[in-house]
Amino acid sequence: MDLEQHFDATIARDQRIEPRDWMPEGYRKTMIRQVAQHAHSEIIGMQPEGDWITRAPSLRRKAVLLAKVQDEAGHGLYLYSAAETLGADRTDLTERLIEGRQKYSSIFNYPTLTFADVGVIGWLVDGAAICNQVPLCRSSYGPYARAMIRICKEESFHQRQGYELLMTMMSGTQAQRDMVQDATNRWWWPSLMMFGPPDAESANTAQSMAWKIKRHTNDELRQRFVDMSVPQAEKLGVTLPDPELKWNAERGHHDFGEIDWVHFKQVVSGNGPCNAIRVSRRRKAHEDGEWVREAAAAYAAKRKEAAA
Ligand SMILES: [Fe+2]
Ligand SMILES: [Fe+2]
């Protein structure tokens, strides 16, 4: 009872829960699930843009894209480490991912058809990730909150590189402008879905807010993202593919059209355009890396022996 009071009081004082602290099993499970899904998303998220590394139109674009994709690998690693502080096993988490038992963000199940997709992913997908993740820097679990500080700094570089790429394309030929518009049309709605189901249907939101894991609801964050994106789209010169999108002076926010949640559920449950390829590539990479893990484990054992 004392332990539980201590936990509740720590949360109430807005202080962090640390790995050594007692925590309710439900909190631990929720944190492991959230951190693992986030880690998986970073790692799977390397694939759509990774497809363009060999086809980047210039050395500069290739260097930027390589750095960005490499950052996502780093994000995955910090987050798997954060999950380990909760007692999760890294191998087990990887197996859950490649066996399709644990989810990752549905946004990465869409294909990248042109180089403009690289820019639009930076602008919209990393932009939505920032909206989601900045409040997580104040999340109640210490290792997760601290990992998020560095991740958010890098995400904002990703967002800017995407926007800069699109600005360059928009000042190019008509064909390039058409590519940017087409990519915007394809990624806008999936980006809005990144915030998760509407509050009324979100099973975990209330408990996560009470534990201060989450600070804002899905709908609040989605609205913030829409309000932020509209002026950016105007400056860029693209049209967001939503005829119902308009400023509502009374609310002080933009109204927007209905999201196709039936489609969202299809993609989440494995039937998006690229789900199978994303998971099968991750599985292959894991299998191909078997010898590296074996060598690293043997080396670690040898060093331990030498130290003893
Ligand atoms: Fe990331
Ligand atoms: Fe990113």
Automatic annotation (TrEMBL):
Top-rank taxon: Bacteria
Pfam families: PaaA_PaaC
Lineage: Bacteria, Bacillati, Actinomycetota, Actinomycetes, Pseudonocardiales
Keywords tagged on the record: Oxidoreductase
Top EC class for this record: oxidoreductase
GO molecular function: phenylacetyl-CoA 1,2-epoxidase activity
NCBIfam families hit by this protein: PA_CoA_Oxy1
Enzyme nomenclature, EC number: 1.14.13.149
Native source species: Kibdelosporangium banguiense
Name of the protein described by the UniProt record: Ring-1,2-phenylacetyl-CoA epoxidase subunit PaaA
